[in-house]
């Protein structure tokens, strides 16, 4: 008798598991009520240009404004404006949208510090050579670098953000 009940339970479980379930969109849409919209009704509204000025006051700016001109650089925050004329070099380092130099120090997964310079246009290899020559005197060995042409970036092993930043400020970027 127990074996018979156990077998019946087994058959019920197998039949439930083998059933083909309908796709999710069919099951949920069958439970939702069908909404019908009357397309002949027109929505009436008025346009008020006077009231929109209050909306403009709370909207964020569409772009970052140009920084003001200062009498002395660097500013108290350490920011330096780019040179008025574009430097005549085989490469160009663009600033970020916040008008900063695109230099980042970060750590690799095993805790190794690296410095990354982004947004490099032109001869990226010439900049890499100049950065190596700049950093070489402070190290006991040849600096490890990696040039990534697709992302327009150079990765240097170690903490070199301040040295590279001063170098690029002197160049006029």
TrEMBL record:
GO biological process per UniProt: translation
Keyword ATP-binding listed: no
Ribosomal protein is among the record's keywords: yes
Any one of the GO CC terms: mitochondrial large ribosomal subunit
InterPro entries associated with the record: Ribosomal_mL49
Principal localisation: mitochondrion
Compartments it resides in: Mitochondrion
Molecular-function GO terms, alphabetical: structural constituent of ribosome
Classification via PANTHER family: LARGE RIBOSOMAL SUBUNIT PROTEIN ML49, MITOCHONDRIAL 39S RIBOSOMAL PROTEIN L49
Family: Belongs to the mitochondrion-specific ribosomal protein mL49 family.
Protein name (record): Large ribosomal subunit protein mL49
Organism: Ciona savignyi (Pacific transparent sea squirt)
């Amino acid at each position: 008798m127990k074996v018979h009940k156990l077998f019946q339970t087994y058959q019920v479980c197998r039949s439930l598991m083998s059933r083909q379930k309908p796709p999710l969109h069919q099951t949920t849409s069958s439970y939702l009520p069908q909404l019908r919209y009357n397309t002949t009704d027109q929505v009436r509204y008025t346009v008020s240009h006077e009231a929109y000025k209050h909306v403009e006051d709370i909207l964020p700016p569409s772009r970052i404004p140009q920084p003001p001109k200062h009498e002395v650089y660097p500013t108290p925050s350490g920011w330096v404006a780019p040179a008025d004329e574009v430097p005549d070099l085989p490469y160009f380092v663009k600033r970020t949208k916040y008008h900063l130099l695109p230099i980042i120090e970060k750590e690799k997964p095993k805790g190794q510090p690296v410095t990354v310079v982004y947004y490099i246009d032109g001869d990226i290899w010439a900049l890499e050579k100049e950065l190596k020559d700049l950093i070489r005197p402070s190290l006991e060995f040849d600096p490890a670098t990696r040039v990534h042409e697709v992302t327009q970036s150079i990765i240097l092993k170690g903490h070199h953000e301040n040295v590279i930043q001063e170098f690029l400020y002197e160049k006029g970027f």
